[in-house]
Amino acid sequence: MFIQTEVTSDPARMTFLPGREVLPHGTLTFDDRAAATRSPLAARLFDVRGVAALALGPDYITITKESGDWQHLKPALLGAMMEHFLSGAPVLSEPAHAAAPVSEATGKLVEEITQALRHVIDPELGYNIVDLGLIYHVDVDTDGLATVTMTTTSPGCPATGYLSDGARERAASVEGITRAEVTLTYEPRWSTDLMSDGAKAHFGIGTGRRR
């Protein structure tokens, strides 16, 4: 099992990509050890000294550290993740939808962020990143932190920095958001199937048949 890591704009946070599903849908944030009791994976990660908080997403785990440096924390965190996934234990001891209901206010913020992200235009295709299908997930936690999980049309896309910076700035511009982070992923890989019907029509891609 190979787990990738990605730095974030916050030096106290790091994202881990285990290369497999973490949650079937949505995102869960655990602000302390007590909140992690419903997740065997989260509880195991909180056992690593120096972990302050964490978030679980569809295919990623974001860790916030309270102390120590990543050079020493990463091996312990990677080991805990591998032990969990190889053990076959569930990520949650209860369904995700029961553990993390989305409030009306949070849902409204997610909708507003999504609309704001439509102002970010892919410079190569000349179309917004939401309808191109580059935005995989938007989440807002109770502290107003917005996390945007997105991809690009291909790994190594020269516009990656431009698009991720634009997404971060637009998400942070929404009233009620205190900070925004962007997580890049290539699982699943982007394809034209992820485009909205409007984008497909714009590019002359048929919507009547599915491959």
Key words describing this protein structure:
2 domains; 211 residues; 6 helices; 21% strand; three-stranded mixed β-sheet; Ribosomal Protein S8, Chain: A, domain 1; five-stranded antiparallel β-sheet; alpha+beta; GMP Synthetase, Chain A, domain 3
Write the layout of secondary structure elements.
Layout: E1 4-7, E2 13-17, E3 28-30, H1 40-46, E4 51-56, E5 61-65, H2 70-87, H3 96-99, H4 104-117, E6 121-122, E7 127-128, E8 135-140, E9 145-150, H5 160-172, E10 179-184, H6 197-202
Parallel strand pairs: 9-10
Antiparallel strand pairs: 1-2, 2-5, 3-4, 4-5, 6-7, 8-9
Helix pairs in contact: 1-2, 4-5
Description:
This protein has 6 helices and 10 strands; from the N terminus they run βββαββαααββββαβα. Helix 1 packs antiparallel against helix 2. The protein is globular. The two termini are 31 Å apart. The chain folds into 2 domains: 4-99, 2-Layer Sandwich (Ribosomal Protein S8, Chain: A, domain 1), CATH 3.30.1370; 104-202, GMP Synthetase, Chain A, domain 3, CATH 3.30.300.130. With 211 residues, the protein is an alpha+beta fold. The chain has a 5-stranded antiparallel beta sheet, with helices on one face. A 3-stranded mixed beta sheet has the order 8-9-10, covered by helices on one side. Strand 6 (121-122) and strand 7 (127-128) form a beta hairpin.
